[in-house]
Design brief:
Beta-Lactamase; rod-shaped; alpha+beta; about 210 residues
């Protein structure tokens, strides 16, 4: 089973949590796609993540257009100062937008330093392609496609003593058949021999007994 921290969403949430813990002046933070879709958020009850996502993406897009249009090159960050605090927007390795809302007493230099660290980590997480989950397998379909021997299960193994007994019985049967065959051939040989062969002594055809 895959742990939450092993997924892309889990790694993004962990990076955002680490950023908030390292920056005590942060009151709200979010990771937003360039389309304005929230990917990970840590917001108080008064802020809606959809609104934060839409405004963050719009501000970053306007900032990029302004930087390029005024000949300032690629945009690094957007910094908004209000009566009650600050809003920071920073691109996460061209993969997403990191947005942070800080209090009026926030140290700007420290905030930007921590945001760069977090943005680099978030960009590395998003640069790794997410692996799709394995397709679900219907148990009935898996049973139909398995080999027949796996469906039936393994054949039971016979006891060694029983196997030796069967082998000895088969050898004994072969020996009996061979013995009967020899006896039958001997019987036919005695019945078919001529009358002049008696008691194993050859008798000449004319009945005379040979002399030394």
């Amino acid at each position: 089973m895959e742990r939450p921290d092993d997924t892309r969403a889990g790694r993004l949430a962990a990076a955002l949590d680490d950023f908030i813990r390292s920056s005590p002046d942060v009151e709200a933070a979010a990771i937003v796609s360039f389309d304005g879709l929230p990917m990970a958020t840590a917001l108080p009850d008064g802020l809606e993540e959809d609104r934060v996502g839409a405004m963050s993406a719009a501000l970053l897009s306007l900032g990029e257009q302004a930087a390029l249009g005024l000949g300032r090159g690629q945009l690094n960050q957007v910094f908004v100062e209000g009566e009650h605090g600050f809003v920071f927007l920073m691109s996460a390795e061209d993969q997403a937008v990191l947005a942070a809302v800080a209090s009026r007493d926030a140290k700007i230099g420290f905030m930007l330093y921590e945001m760069r660290r977090a943005a680099q980590r978030i960009g590395k997480v998003l640069a790794i392609p997410s692996m799709p989950p394995p397709p679900a397998v219907d148990p009935a379909e898996a049973t139909r496609t398995r080999p027949l021997d796996l469906v039936r299960g393994p054949e039971p193994q016979r006891d060694d003593a029983a196997g030796l007994f069967d082998q000895a019985r088969a050898e004994h049967a072969v020996a009996d058949r061979a013995e009967h065959a020899v006896a039958d051939r001997a019987a036919h040989a005695v019945t078919d021999r001529p009358d002049h062969a008696v008691a194993g002594r050859a008798v000449p055809p004319n009945g005379a007994t040979p002399h030394g």
